[in-house]
């Protein structure tokens, strides 16, 4: 059992210390998501409507602690992501296999924005973005490979990675075994409908069911800490469980 702390009882520096990235020789990928109580990642196609002041604070704190924010280009467009505000903001990485990104979307040509794609992306769209001044990095052949993306970011000294979605990009990172931590905000509402979960698309093999818990789970995670707030939101930090040998 965990004693749940009240987020409003913590100072900003205390919260930053409790949610700091772990020390690691390699990259650490931390996904940041919000969902309803019944598991919906969006309402009316958007995740932003599920958040509150506390969720916004945690969301921005994760960016402050990160070297790079990785987000699907479609999610960035829907949620109206802005370019990094200054040189101290994390690098933004827009992930897109199709490169279906308008050249007049302002972050595209920002010097602190990278577009991660694959070599099979349409040549005309690739040329249009490059001609507009975008920086493209190939991280796979027919699809975007999360591990190759992390290698590319590592060569740039970017090791603390904040993965912000959407659900299909998150699922691809999980399927590649590339997610180390998750900060999940549970919004105090039910969503209904057919909205996706926070990880949606790619699948995982089911481990040997004769194994003990948690090793028989597809991608076991351990609860590190948990907070609540006066608005009814729940904030949980999860860390990937190391399987037994």
TrEMBL record:
<dbReference type="GO" id="GO:0009231">
    <property type="term" value="P:riboflavin biosynthetic process"/>
</dbReference>
<dbReference type="GO" id="GO:0008703">
    <property type="term" value="F:5-amino-6-(5-phosphoribosylamino)uracil reductase activity"/>
</dbReference>
<keyword id="KW-0521">NADP</keyword>
<dbReference type="InterPro" id="IPR024072">
    <property type="entry name" value="DHFR-like_dom_sf"/>
</dbReference>
<dbReference type="InterPro" id="IPR002734">
    <property type="entry name" value="RibDG_C"/>
</dbReference>
<dbReference type="Pfam" id="PF01872">
    <property type="entry name" value="RibD_C"/>
</dbReference>
<protein>
    <recommendedName>
        <fullName>Bacterial bifunctional deaminase-reductase C-terminal domain-containing protein</fullName>
    </recommendedName>
</protein>
<feature type="domain" description="Bacterial bifunctional deaminase-reductase C-terminal">
    <location>
        <begin position="27"/>
        <end position="201"/>
    </location>
</feature>
<comment type="pathway">
    <text>Cofactor biosynthesis; riboflavin biosynthesis.</text>
</comment>
<dbReference type="InterPro" id="IPR050765">
    <property type="entry name" value="Riboflavin_Biosynth_HTPR"/>
</dbReference>
<keyword id="KW-0560">Oxidoreductase</keyword>
